[in-house]
């Protein structure tokens, strides 16, 4: 017998992030897209159930050790599972607009200012060609903004992601249509900096 990965419930109501992210998008995104990634990750690992003893984060970090015949599936579906689980956590309905404390200091040290960081992050999100993610990660004790294609995770590069934005069309197209940049701008209204600061502390 083996355990299997479970899609965590959304930590707020589907409509909690309105008007910035609409309830229908959140429902489809969580209940259909995220659930499908988790289900397909479990199906891929069934052949090698010993991997169920690891956390999904450990699996992505150790992706090169995953048997080759399921590695692409684990990369896509495991990435999809973990990326979305983190994404729900870094958003909140009553979000404060800025980080503080150690994270703010680190942002100012590594990017010059919070505003310069925002420009860099928006640029990564807007210029990711096709489907993917924009990230704020910790690597070698420094913060960096990066982007990945598809469901690739910075964990696989041994980076520790602390803030992320899904720029797949399924994340915004119902409300924002082709205007990805408006979705990216709106994202700042729902960033849960308390959660991001907690991830920074443990990174
Ligand atoms: Mn998504």
CATH-defined superfamily of the largest domain: Iron/manganese superoxide dismutase, C-terminal domain
**How much of the residues is beta strand, in percent?**
5-15%
Q: SSE order, as H and E? A: HHHHHEEEHHH
Main sheet: strand order: 2-1-3
- Molecular shape: globular
Summarize the structure.
This protein has 203 residues and is mostly helical. The chain has helices at residues 23-45, 56-61, 68-89, 101-111, 114-127, 173-176, 180-187, 193-202; strands at residues 132-139, 142-149, 160-166.
Verbal overview:
With 203 residues, the chain is mostly helical. It is built from eight helices and three strands; from the N terminus they run H-H-H-H-H-E-E-E-H-H-H. Strands 2-1-3 form a three-stranded antiparallel β-sheet, with helices on both faces. Strand 1 and strand 2 form a beta hairpin. The model has no long low-confidence stretch (mean pLDDT 97). Manganese (III) ion (MN3) binds next to helix 1.
Descriptive tags:
single chain, minor pseudopilin epsh fold, three-stranded antiparallel β-sheet, 3 strands, binds manganese (III) ion
Please specify the SSE layout and strand pairing:
Elements: H1 23-45, H2 56-61, H3 68-89, H4 101-111, H5 114-127, E1 132-139, E2 142-149, E3 160-166, H6 173-176, H7 180-187, H8 193-202
Antiparallel strand pairs: 1-2, 1-3
Helix pairs in contact: 1-3
The chain binds manganese (III) ion.
